[in-house]
Design a protein that fits this description.
The protein is of the alpha+beta class and 86 residues long. The chain has helices at residues 2-13, 22-31, 65-78, and strands at residues 35-39, 42-46, 54-56, 58-59, 62-63. The strands form 2 sheets. It has a 3-stranded antiparallel beta sheet. β1 and β2 form a beta hairpin. The longest helix has 14 residues, at 65-78. It is globular, with a radius of gyration of 12 Å. The mean pLDDT is 91.
Length: 86
């Protein structure tokens, strides 16, 4: 659980969007209750109650920075952060 708290904190800080491991971001979304399907190189995440879909692609072993920003915006909008739920 602490691993996810630290990852959410790192994403919310916004200081290292280019340095988030793709696998960590995928696992965080699964932990937050998103369902994943894979179509080619696209990992598509949906969650009941979340209008937006998250579409991730690898860039090396890192998530693309704009995709990390997209996940940050969804975490904030829907208050999904592990230690930030109100």
């Amino acid at each position: 659980m602490r691993k996810y708290d630290e990852l959410v904190f790192q994403i919310l800080r916004g200081m290292s969007d280019a340095n988030i491991a793709f696998t960590d971001l995928v696992n965080l979304l699964k932990h937050l209750g998103f369902d994943m399907r894979i179509k080619g190189s696209h990992h598509i995440f949906r969650k009941d109650g979340v209008i937006e879909k998250v579409n991730l692609q690898k860039e090396g072993n890192k998530a693309k920075p704009y995709q990390v920003r997209q996940v940050r915006n969804i975490i904030l909008k829907y208050k999904l952060g592990v230690m930030y739920n109100g």
